[in-house]
From TrEMBL:
Intervals holding TPR repeats: 405-438
Entry keyword annotation includes Transferase: yes
Record domain CheR-type methyltransferase: where: 17-265
InterPro entries: Bact_Chemotaxis_MeTrfase, CheR_C, CheR_MeTrfase, SAM-dependent_MTases_sf, TPR-like_helical_dom_sf, TPR_rpt
Top-level taxon of the source organism: Bacteria
GO biological process: methylation
Keyword terms of this UniProt record: Methyltransferase, S-adenosyl-L-methionine, TPR repeat, Transferase
This protein's name: CheR-type MCP methyltransferase
UniProt-annotated stretches for the region Disordered: 287-326
Molecular function in Gene Ontology: S-adenosylmethionine-dependent methyltransferase activity
């Protein structure tokens, strides 16, 4: 450990370090946390071999987001205190009202639930919901339960995946639950979530301050429930508004958002209705979510699902704004078709999924004859959480798009959503066959295999992605998911490999 003299109040670097952290990850270090930050900086100097905090600061200012020193600092600055069944009033609402209603509605339809613990810390929140679902659902294994926990603290994610907790973390749990859902670890003060329960939850990296959701690629879309609790304290008001906007877009119609009691946000969240219950409030997205009345952006937004307009991959997408629409021999028909595509293109760019679904209903025939339009509807419906209908539209488009890797990739994602694992694997293989360097298809294929317990194949596919990425510059945007750099995905894969106790590929 370096021997740095620290006087947090006087040190000029403190101000710069705080702004750097805020700029990089959107985290605001409060005044009362300066001493703590000073200690963290001193510890990081020792660990990474910097003479003093100014030298550390210089290194940080040029290091990429996934550099070990950056990740180490973030892991230490973010305080991940959490425990099981935190906030009794909210847990009672979930257990007694929201989840039973949702389960009853889905029982006779898709039997799919999508739940996101944003800022999941070490997973206590998500496993609490998993426990409730296990108790409320008759045969949970017959359901598609998508339970996703995200955080930017990689160490916390690793612990969440391992599921080992101290008695202190388990303080909100009855003895019956402790025994039923946890194994002894051999130590008197910790217990581990049982293996079958751990497979129901998935934990991945996600910086809430980054513009990377909603997206079907990381499964962050069409959520029935989002828990985003006790994290907004770290952000300023502007950042909170931006994140909330993206969360609203990530909720399915009828979906609910829970915030933490300490998250003092403006009680009015545009696009959500607030509802009160004893000791708590929650936010619900109306069933018929009005399309935002924002003007169509000049540049298309990033699509929430892969391969659509505006992305680098045009194969399956509609023509981008800059691409001329092909001239047809019958100008009037061609003009009408161009108008039709232009309208659709505008809706996709503005992510007006509900409007696209309604458009497709009105103009079903016209949509059905265009694979591009059908795929756009499939993506829109996927983003609205209507997976069955999305799959039907995608399969309608496939005969017309048989050689299009994006179409097969979308098909695979939708099959995966429907827990049709074998068919999804086949569709991923088809996408990879059509485009061998399709990184995201390899990656999703790997995760699906690992999730299905096919460790060997899954790891092989992860290495394939890692090798493909090794040839690309770290800062290059990933084809099909422009918000993600090749370097970032490589880092995520290295984490994934280390979770599977594998050494990094040479
Ligand atoms: C106090 S814990 C909250 C845990 C849990 N949600 C709860 O309420 O018990 C705050 C978590 O937010 C995470 N966090 C902070 N900034 C974040 C960001 N920009 N993106 C994602 N997670 C973030 C921290 O790593 C930490 O795990």
């Amino acid at each position: 450990m370096s021997n740095v003299t620290l006087d947090a109040d006087k040190a000029g670097w403190m101000h710069d370090l705080r702004s750097l952290i805020e700029r990089r990850v959107g985290l605001r270090v409060a005044d009362h946390q300066r001493e703590q930050l000073a200690r963290i900086a001193a510890e990081a100097c020792g660990r990474f071999g910097y003479a003093d905090p100014p030298e550390l600061l210089r290194a940080l200012s040029t290091a990429p987001d996934d550099a070990p020193v950056v990740e180490h600092l973030i892991a230490n600055v973010t305080i991940g205190e959490s425990h099981f069944f935190r906030d009794r009033a909210q847990m009672a609402f979930l257990e007694q009202e929201f989840l039973p209603d949702l389960i009853a509605r889905r029982q006779s339809s898709s039997r799919t639930l999508r739940i996101w613990s944003a800022a999941a810390s070490e997973g206590q929140e998500l496993y609490s919901v998993a426990i409730m679902l296990d108790e409320l659902i008759d045969r949970p294994d017959d359901w598609n339960l998508h339970l996703l926990g995200t955080d930017l603290n990689v160490e916390a994610l690793r612990r969440a995946t391992e599921g080992v907790y101290s008695n202190w973390s388990l303080r909100g749990l009855s003895n019956i639950r402790r025994l039923h859902y946890f194994d002894s670890t051999g130590k008197h003060d910790t217990r581990q979530v049982k293996a079958w329960m751990r497979t129901r939850a998935r934990f991945i990296y996600q910086n809430l301050a980054a513009d990377t959701f909603p997206s079907m690629l990381n499964d962050l879309h069409a959520m029935d429930l989002v828990l985003c609790r006790n994290v907004f304290i770290y952000f300023d008001a502007v950042r909170v508004r931006e994140i909330l906007q993206r969360i609203v877009a990530t909720l399915a119609p009828g979906g609910v958002l829970l915030l933490g009691a300490s998250d003092l946000v403006n009680p009015q969240i545009p696009g959500l209705d607030i509802e009160m219950r004893p000791g708590m409030c929650f936010y619900r997205k109306p069933l018929q979510h009005a399309s935002p009345q924002t003007p169509t952006p000049k540049r298309p937004n990033k699509p929430a699902v892969p391969g659509s307009l505006g992305g680098a991959r045009h194969a399956a997408g509609l023509p981008s704004g800059s691409r001329p629409v092909a001239k047809a021999s019958r100008p009037a028909v061609a003009d009408r078709h161009a108008d039709f595509l232009a309208t659709l293109q505008e809706q996709v760019a503005a992510q007006r999924w509900q409007e696209i679904a309604e458009f497709a209903e009105r103009e079903a025939d016209r949509f059905a004859t265009s694979s591009e339009a059908s795929l756009a509807v499939a993506r829109a419906l996927g983003n609205l959480g209507q997976q069955d209908a999305a799959l039907r539209w995608c399969e309608r488009a496939l005969p017309l798009a048989a050689t299009d890797p994006d179409a097969h990739f979308l098909h695979a994602l939708l099959l995966q959503e429907a827990s049709r694992v074998e068919e999804a694997l086949k569709a991923f293989r088809r996408a990879i066959f059509l485009q061998p360097d399709f990184v995201l298809a390899h990656y999703q294929y790997a995760l699906l295999q690992l999730g299905a317990g096919r460790r060997e194949g899954g790891l092989r596919s992860l290495y394939n992605v890692r090798n493909l990425l090794a040839a690309a510059p770290a800062d290059r945007a990933l084809q099909g998911a422009e918000h993600m750099s090749c370097g970032r995905l490589a880092q995520i894969i290295d984490n994934e490999l280390s979770l599977h106790h594998e050494s990094r590929p040479g």
